[in-house]
Each structure stands twice: as C-alpha cells, then as structure tokens.
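G., the chain you wanted modeled:
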Amino acid sequence: MWEEAEVIAIFLADIHLSLTPPVWRSAEDDWLEAQSRPLGEVKELQRKYKCPVICAGDIFDRNKKISDGWNAPPELINYAIQYLPDDMYAIPGQHDLPNHQYIDVHRSAYWTLVEAGKIINIPPSDTNGIVVNDCVLFGFPPGHGVKSILKIEEERSKIIIAVVHDYVWITGHSYPTAPEEKKLGKDSCISNREWLGYNVVVYGDNHKGFSHRIGSTDIFNCGTLMRRKSDEIDYKPQVGLLLEFGKVVPYQLDISEDKCITKAEEQVKSEIATLNMEEFFDDLEKLGKTFLDFTDAAKEFLHSHKVSNEAKQILFDAMEK
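Predicted structure as tokens:
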C-alpha cells in the first residue's frame, strides 16, 4: 500500500491563474476564491507530508490584452504570493514567458514571484541539477528539449527528476490532431534512450493528466489544476505524490464546489464577448441622420450579422430595460 510510504514531493502544473473566470466557470460567485480552493487543498497536502511542491509551468493564464500571462497585473501577482504553496520549485510555461522566450524570463510576472522569494526557479540544465532533500531537479522549460543524463555517482541514492513544460500525450489523453512525434510509447520517437539517468519525468502543458512508464522511468503529466472549459466537465484535476522509492501516485482534487454554466449559456456568453463593437459603431455612423434611433440601429446590426437567437434576445431584453 503506497499510503505507508513517505511522500517526498508534490507535482503540479498548468495552474493558469487569472483575475476573471473563463466563460464556462463564470457561474462562480468569486473567481479568485474559486481558484483558492484547489490551491488550498495542495497546501493542506503539503502541510500533511511536509514536502516541497514542484510546478511544471504555466502559473499564469493568458492576459487577454497581450495574449499571454507573463505581464500579469499586480493584483494577480499579489494573489499568487498569498495563495501559492510555500517551498515551491518551478519552471515557467510558455504563458509565463514574454513571446515564449526564456531569455526574457526576467521581464515576467513569473520572475516577480522568484524575486519575492515565493518560488524557486529551476534553471535549464542537463548537467547541474538543484538538490532538494532526496531529489535532484533538472529543468526543461519551453524551448529546452529534454536531454539525457547519466546519474552522478555521488547522487545515485537520490531521485533524479526532469521537470518539463512540453506537450506529450498517450492514447485517450490528447486533442484530436495531436502530433504523432509527441506521443509517448515504445514505437514513438520518445524512447528509453532519452530518459537515461532520470527516475521521474514530470510534464506540464497537456491539460489531460496521465501516468506512463518507459523502461524504469515514471512519467507523470500533471494536467490542469482546475477545470476551465466545458469539454473538461468529466475531468478530475490531479496532482502527483512522489513516493520515497521514486513512484508517482496521482491524487485527485475535490471539485464538488465547482460552479459552471451550461453549454448553451457558454455559447451565448462567448458570442456576446466576441461581438465586434468597433464594427457596430462604424455601422451606426453610416446610418447618418435617419429616423432610426439607437435601438433600431442595434437591431439592424444584429439582424445583419451572425449572432445566435439566444444572444440577440439577451441584448434586446437589455435594451428594452
């Protein structure tokens, strides 16, 4: 029974912190509070096992203004400092990096967490890892492919871990057109040879968590820490518990308090959010001095553009009020 073994680290990835909820989770009364629930559960696990947390990238979600989360607003950075686990080691994911370039990591909100002492960055390396208790951590952020290493003689008693942010998948845990060269398996490009020297490889980026094994190496893809999209309705977020002998055990998080909208509601809200208001006002200007008032102009715009009946009705109801 693994419960009798000592847990020496907790793996997670793809936290995707944001100030506003994704559309599907917009039923939450307070999105920051909703995000604090899985983070709080991780903290409880950490207190229970008295071990470090190791994050395989994407602490922040996309910033809608710039398409990525490296430039997170101060409010969200302050939230991260307060609610992320302590004693946390991490690599950045692509959303944590300006233009997905590791060379610019010092410009990022991720690096603010490093400077604040909230997280400890695992630098890219295949020669010198970070020793953390009974583990040696080697970091491979975006743009740094996993390199094979040989176990250093004096560290052979420790668990050698590669922490990677890169998309890999197995059957049943991918998007429909996932590239074959990223598939894990004995017949794939990712073979035993590439894992020489690692006891464990922990991945971030693929939001569908899974466990796999190649040769004597445990591979754990963390998956997303919290559900964000309607196609994740049946997904159970997880973290990985690293046991003292090098095995990773999935631990599913509590989602009983998650609040989500229906698929129909999601479609309507998405359509409303993506209406091109500049185009709308351009159309208003073209009307000139006509007998149409603002409401008629709005109706004209909605009737002449592809907007669902449900979305139209919501806007019409708002205008009538």
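Residues 263-320 form one domain.

Shout if anything looks off.
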